[in-house]
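In the current project phase, our protein records have gained a structure token line. A sample record follows, to show the layout:
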Amino acid sequence: ADAVTGNLVIQELTGQLEAYPLAGQGSLKFGEGAIEINQLQLHTQNNELLLSGVYADELDFSWELNANSLEEIFNDISGELIGTGNLTGDVSSLDIGGQLSGRNLAYKESTIDQFNLSFARISGQIQSQLDIYSLVYSDSSRSEKLSALNLLVFK
């Protein structure tokens, strides 16, 4: 049987996510055992996710997130997330790398003023760093505060 080949172009994607407009565009190309995603973009009024890459014998994907208003995506979460990353290599042993940072995050009564995360898994070796500033956890019976937390993970 012949393999399916072709192009799929999303010229315009529109809709609603919660009460916010959702839009997108991009293209996919498939054939010869590979799928290529070219600048697949999804965005709300203040948030954007961009994906590009190839899935064939090996992966080579990158992503970029600029979410300046998380409440447009999630009911109970507010704040900002910004990050970039990539996935490369064989699916059974992916190399993963990226950075993610957040500001003014809140979930119910819990908050984080700021966090920075860098992560990498290359050739099975893990190296990550997480810095959190002013984490407050609250519920109906108590409130706890952690002024700063700095973690390094190596494996």
Summary: The chain has a mean pLDDT of 92.
